[in-house]
Specification:
There is one protein chain. With 242 residues, this protein is of the alpha/beta class. A hairpin with a 2-residue loop joins strand 2 and strand 3.
């Protein structure tokens, strides 16, 4: 299993939100590049980055920050937020971003996801499924839908998607533990056909252990690293054990 330490960017700052609420923005680190470099020193090979301004505005906003991390570290950058077109995907991949996250468009424009997988390959595309009570939310978590998260995953698998990030919004930024029940249901439903990354609620090593025991592909860790409830190096070393 891989561990993806996270940096969310708003107004150029490294921040975290509580349950996706923009009014709860909290600056959690200073320089984004120093933060990314500290993750690399702890043994990380991936970094999960989100353009919160982009998610809200539906377009790329803090591009230089992500390309800086891609250029100046050896980390593989997984990036989401405001990616709504093939042109934006192409530009980010050309700038050195390893994998792009498609969120709202998976529900609102599934043809775009299908085209992206066909054009850039399944290794470059990850679909972010964010849910409240098992129902998919969109537009930076500002809108809800009547689509079940597993139903959306099945639809995306049918168009060639391999990688998924599942976030229980009620858990995100809360340090209350991952939603093992919904993650296990998704992992079981898509077993052998998709790789699942857990996001939201990671608190301690117990969450890393739980995710690995479920056979997940990866786990995203944000606030737990910044608040010191999870040691990144320890998490990576455990996750990488066979």
């Amino acid at each position: 299993m891989i561990i993806l330490p996270a940096i969310d960017i708003k107004d150029g700052n490294c921040v975290r939100l509580f349950r996706g609420d923009f009014s709860t923005v909290e600056k959690v680190a200073g320089d984004y590049l120093e933060t990314a470099e500290s993750f690399e020193k702890a043994g990380a090979t991936w970094i999960h980055m989100v353009d919160l301004d982009g998610a809200k505005e539906g377009r790329p906003v803090n591009t230089k920050i992500y390309t800086d991390v891609a250029e100046k570290t050896n980390l593989k950058v997984e990036l989401g937020g405001g990616i709504r077109s093939l042109d934006t995907i192409r530009e980010y991949l050309n700038m050195g971003i390893t994998r792009v996250i498609l969120g709202s468009v998976a529900l609102k424009n599934p043809k775009l996801v299908s085209n992206a997988v066909e054009k850039f390959g399944s290794e470059k595309i990850v679909v972010g499924i964010d849910a409240v009570n098992g129902m998919v939310a969109t537009e930076g978590w500002l809108e809800s839908s009547d689509v079940n998260y597993i139903e959306l995953a099945e639809k995306m698998i049918s168009v060639g998607v391999k990688y998924f990030i599942f976030t229980d919004i009620s858990k995100d930024g809360t340090l209350s533990g991952v939603n093992t029940e919904q993650l296990k249901a998704l992992a079981d439903a898509t077993k052998g056909r998709a790789d699942i990354v857990a996001s939201g609620g990671v608190h301690t090593m117990a969450d890393i252990v739980a995710c690995k025991e479920m056979g997940l592909y990866g786990t995203i860790c944000g606030k737990s690293i910044y608040k010191g409830t999870l040691d990144l190096r320890e998490a990576i070393e455990y996750a990488e054990r066979t």
